[in-house]
Write a sequence for this structure.
């Protein structure tokens, strides 16, 4: 195996195990919480709080990583994995204490969202140090992990209680932790330290400025902030579908098993787009790819709104091939291009904050709409918001790229 395949394979396992755990927490959140006696509005409140706290801590963690010191992307991701494993095992065996369940689940959800941009940033950090990683392929394997794990959980849930979700999460994350602990930067020919590169530990980057203060960051990257607003709007509907899938498909004759199949299919179709993203990006600019992806997000929620049966749900989920699958690598490279070196981890964090914040609004608003008017009205709201986000994304990316798109 050549060095490129070696680094990509290990990074792919880290992605796969992360998104397998992500699947258990996010795709099956409503099923777990409904089983524990929570209402749709309470689930929405839980997801909102988790997302709000995640938004608050992500820039802080990213700022600490960007600063000179020994805190690295890999070490932070490993620490987050350990905490989630411990909390997942605790949650699996708690039955009646609703407030404790609320707090623990919120912490798991929050931490898992917080270190997703760190894993993305780790790719660019390692690539800069000469480790050849095919980001699109490795991230696509994350989707494959999600895809393979989702139907397994769906079928297990039909035979066992909901505790299997968090026991399974702890097991798959344990595998990811092993790979994180051994995924160390190599020593350079001069024999410098492999982790926390020399310039990071000594702080020898006087010509660069890190914009750790939020208002300084906004002032320095105004067009990027407009793009983040577009992301919030577009992902509002995306998060709505993920968090309330069981409520959407039940009137259409669906069950937990169909959630497994639907989420699995959506994740599987992501792989080709992500795996060949590098080649696609050579022919079509990241700006245009971002515009195309936001349009696909809107088409996806629109098809879900018009679905009259499970077949319609699957058609909607197939749009993932041009929505999430295209957006994730395109946005990651976009951030890396428009951010200065000492702001790159923060840029990834703020992007993920926008996605997370959309989950906050989705949780607060959609749970109430669902209880008051049902899934049809909720999906109609999602269509309107997604259209607005797509328009804003096109405008903001055009402003950033000018005539180069």
């Amino acid at each position: 195996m050549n060095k490129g395949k070696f680094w990509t394979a290990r990074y792919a396992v880290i992605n796969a195990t992360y998104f397998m755990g992500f699947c258990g927490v996010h795709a099956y959140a409503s099923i777990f919480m409904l089983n524990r006696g929570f209402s749709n509005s309470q689930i929405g409140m839980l997801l909102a709080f988790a997302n709000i706290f995640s938004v608050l801590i992500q820039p802080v963690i990213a700022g600490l990583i960007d600063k000179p010191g020994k805190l690295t992307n890999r070490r932070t991701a490993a620490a987050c994995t350990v905490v989630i494993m411990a909390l997942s095992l605790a949650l699996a065996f708690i039955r009646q204490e609703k407030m404790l369940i609320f707090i623990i689940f919120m912490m798991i959800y929050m931490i898992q969202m917080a270190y997703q941009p760190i894993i993305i940033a780790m790719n660019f950090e390692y690539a800069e140090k000469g480790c050849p990683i095919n980001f699109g392929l490795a991230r696509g394997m994350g989707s494959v992990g999600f895809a393979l794990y989702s139907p397994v959980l769906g079928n297990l849930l039909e035979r066992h209680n909901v505790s299997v979700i968090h026991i399974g999460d702890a097991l798959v994350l344990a595998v990811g932790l092993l790979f994180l602990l051994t995924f160390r930067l190599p020593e350079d020919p001069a024999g410098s330290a492999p982790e926390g590169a020399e310039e990071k530990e000594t702080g020898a980057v006087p010509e660069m400025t890190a914009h750790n203060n939020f208002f300084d960051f906004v002032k320095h990257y105004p067009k990027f902030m407009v793009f983040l607003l577009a992301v919030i709007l577009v992902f509002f509907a995306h998060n709505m579908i993920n968090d309330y899938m069981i409520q959407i498909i039940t009137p259409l004759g669906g069950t937990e098993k169909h959630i497994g199949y639907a989420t699995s299919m959506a994740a599987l179709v992501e792989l080709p787009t992500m795996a060949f993203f590098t080649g696609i990006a050579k022919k079509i600019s990241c700006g245009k790819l971002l515009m195309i992806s936001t349009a696909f997000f809107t088409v996806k929620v629109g098809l879900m709104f018009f679905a009259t049966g499970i077949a319609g749900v699957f058609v909607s989920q197939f749009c993932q091939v041009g929505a999430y699958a295209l957006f994730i690598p395109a946005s990651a490279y976009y951030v890396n291009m428009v951010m200065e070196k000492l702001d790159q981890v923060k840029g990834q964090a703020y992007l993920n904050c926008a996605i997370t914040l959309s989950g906050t609004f989705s949780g607060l608003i959609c749970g109430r709409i669902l209880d008051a008017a049902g899934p049809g009205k909720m999906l109609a709201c999602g269509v309107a918001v997604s259209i607005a986000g797509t328009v804003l994304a096109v405008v903001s990316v055009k402003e950033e790229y000018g005539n180069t798109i």
About this structure: Residues 189-194, 197-206 have pLDDT under 50 and may be disordered. DSSP finds 20 helices and no strands in the chain. The chain has one domain: 3-185+211-404.
